[in-house]
Amino acid sequence: MPHMIENSIEIWIDQDILNVVFHKETLSFEDADSAIKRRIEMVKGQSFLFFSDARKIKNVSREARTRMAQKDSTTGVIAAAILINSKTHRIMYNFFMKIYKPDANSKIFTDKDKALEWLYQQKKIQS
To answer: Residue 85 belongs to a domain with what CATH number?
Structure first.
């Protein structure tokens, strides 16, 4: 069952995938911090594939980007697939990943099925 964080972020575990869906256009430090802390609580020391639906996000604050670059942002994450829907998103996320180099293998997608397929391939590689 999804857990809502301040009516703006849904987070839940379904089978082997920890899912996060953002329902707002601007991601603040508080949003990023709450989502990371809740995810860490939910995984309870285990590791999961991570799927993030970020299609509604249009702006990420500098503070949120800094928070998402901290070491604990990938705690419990085997690999991360981020669903986007625009060229602007692609540029933004590629830039973020090159600058901050997340510990977990991460990739952006515009097709949810391809994102999930890639996640399951990552799990096989990690096994």
So the answer is: 3.30.750.24
